[in-house]
Predict the 3D structure of the following.
Amino acid sequence: MPRLFELYAAATIRIVVWLIASTAACIQGANAMTITASLGNNDKPSGPPSFSLRQLDLRDTDRIDGIKLTASGAAVTLVYSVQEAMPPAGTKMVIRAAAVDDLENSKVVATVDQLLPAKARWDVRESTSRGYDLVFERAGGALNALMFKDSTGAEILLSVSHPFESFFRPHFVIGTHGALPQVAATADKKKTVLFPPNAHSQPTHYEVVAECADALVGQGKRGWVVTKALVSGRSLFDVLPGKLSIIWRANSPGGEKPQNVPFPDLVAFEFDAANANDDVIVFATAKPAVLLRASAPAKPIHLSAAERSELSQLASPTVIVVSQYVHLAAIANPGTKGAKVLYGKFPVSQVLGK
Amino acid sequence: MEIGESVAVPMVAPPAADVVIHARLQIKSISFSGNHVVEQDTRGDFVPPEWVRGRRRQWPICYTRNSNVRLTARFEVVGAPSATETVSIRGTTSLAGSTLEWTGSVSVAPDAVEVVTAEITSSGTLPNYVAYFQRMTTAWEAQPPGEAWSGAGNSNHLVYLTLGDPQGTPAYWTLLHISCQNAHGATQPTDLVENTYRSFPSRSLTRRRDSVGLTYWNPDTTNVTNTQELLARADGSGQCGSWSEFLLDMYKVHGITAGKKVLVVRNIPVWRSSTIGFLVKNWDFVGAGSLPAPFTHQIGVECVKRPGVPGQRNPNPPPAFYNHFVVKCFNKLYDPSYGSGPIDTQSSWENSSIDGLFSGGACGYPKSANTGTNLLEFHPI
C-alpha cells in the first residue's frame, strides 16, 4: 500500500510540473506576440527609434559599382557608375544620376574613358553651373593619376606635380562648396593628402593631413579627418578591415591641437561621412553596418533592413545631410544578381539623439 | 560452504612505505620565443603555442639562420608521482647535420596535471643558410631522479630560416614559403635574390594560407597595388605594383632592402597627360599605316592585337599601359607580373615585352623596327 501512494504522489508531481511549464510557455508566447505586433508597425517598437533601410527600385543594379548621394536644394539625387567595354583596349565609366524619388528618369552626367578596367573610385559634387564636377582615378597600369573633370567635360590633372605616386579614393572635401573645389585623396595607400583649391588651375603640391591607408577629409566649424587604420582579418568585397578614428584639425596654425578620437570596438571596411550641425556622422560598412557619431563615438547606431543579413554585405556607403535629414545608401551584394541599393532617411535629431 | 560459515578472504597488501612511483610525462605543447612571428597572409599572427599535440594544423616557425632556438615546453602528467620530484627533460632534433638539444627540468607534484619548463635555449644553432624544413622532428624525453631517460613523445615543426632579420614587412607566410623554398641553401644576398625568383617564370604561384592562385589582372577589375592587398584579396588578383612589391617584400623578409621598384613610362610628361603609352606584346603592325607619322597605324585595323604574352595565371593580360612597374636588384631587372627575368638591360626587356607605342586611337614606333632603340624611360623609385 505505501508503494501505491508513492506512485500516486510521483504522478501528481509530474502533472504539476507539466502544468507549470505549460503556463510559462504560454506567457512567453504572449510576450513574443506582443513584440511582434509592435514590430509589425513599420519595425517601430514602442522603445528606441528604428533606422530602417529600404530597397530602391533601380534597374541593372548588378552592374553598378559605385554610388554617391548628392543634393541640390532639398532634392536628393543618387549618382551611380557602371562600366562599359571599349574594344580593343579600354573601358568607359558611365556616371548616371537620378532623383531618389524619381529613379526611372536617370540621365548620364559624365563619361570617363579609361584604358584599363580596374575599378576606379570617384566623387561628384554639384557644380556652380548646375552640372556635376567629378574627381576620379585614372588607372595607368602601375600608377593612378588624380583627375578632375568639370561640368563642361574639361579634364585637368590634379596630381601633375606628383608623377611617381599613385592616387586613390579621391573626394571633394566634405562640407566645402563654392567655385574652387578642394580635393583630397590617398597617396600610395599610405597617406591622405589635400590639394589646395587652386590645384585645378595650376600645378600644386599637396599637404599631408594623415598617415593612414584610407581617410576622408571634411570641414565643419573645425576641419576633420575620418581615418582608417588597417587591422588583420578577412576583407569585405576586397576591402581590408580597419579601425576608424576622427581627427579634429586645428583651424589655424598654432590653433587648437589636433585631437584623435577613436570609434572603439568596431572593425569597419568602407565609410563615408557628413557634417550634421556641429557633429560628424559616419556611415561605415561593418558586420553589420552602423552609423557613428563623433559626439558619441562609443555608441554606434544599428540599422535594420528587410533582409537583415544584407546589412553585413554592404559596399560603397554614402551619406549626406540635407534640410535636417540624414540620407544614406549602400549597395548590398554588389556585382551579383541579387545586388540592390538600400536607402534610408532619418531626422538629424533622431540620429544625434537630441 | 554453508550459510553463516566464515570464509577466509585473501587481503591485498598495501604498498610498502618505501615504494616510489615516478612521474611519467608526455609533451603537450611548445611555444617558441626569439623567433620571427609568421603572419597568416593578412589574417593575423600565428600565436603561440606553435605546436599542440593532436591539433590538426601546426604553426610554422621562422628564425634567422644560425640562431639559437628558445622555447618553453608544456608536458602532460600521464603518470603521477607518489611524491613531488624534479624531473629532467630534454628535447633533441637534428637539422641537416646541425644538432639542437634543449635541456631543463620540471617539478612534478602528485596532483599535477601539467607542468611547464622555464624558457630553455638550444645547445646548438640552426643551420647557417636560408632554409625551408618541412618537418623538423624533436624527440622529447624525461628522466625522473635515479631513473633512465624515457620517451615523452615527439613534436614536428615546419621551419623557415631567413638570411637576416625581416625589415620593412611583416613575415607573411607566403613570402617566407616561396623565398625560403626557392633559395634553400643561400648564404649571400645575391644568391637569395637570384634564387627566390626561380618559381616566378612558372606563373603558378599560390597563396600559402588557402592555396589560392595569385594572378596578374585576372580578373581585370583588380585595383590591388601592394603585397598586403594581394594576399588579402579573395581571388588573389593584383596589378604590377602589387607583384613588384611582392617580390621586393620577399627580399625584405630576409633583411635585404637593396631592391627597387622601377617605373616604366614613355616619358614623364606624356604619362602625366595620359597621351602616350606602350603596347604589350603581341600586336601586329599591318602594312605602312594610313595615318600621319609618327603614329601611323589605326588601332584595331592596322595595328591588330593578337593573344598576349602570359602573365601570372593570366594567358592574356591587358594589352596596353601608360606605365608599368618592374624590379631592379643587384643590377638585374625582374618583371614578376609576367615571370620574365632576370634581364640584363632595358633594351632586352623592351624587345621581349612590347611591340610599340600608342597615342589615342593610333599606334606607332613598331618595336620590330626599333630593336636597337629604347622607346621608354626607366625610373627607379
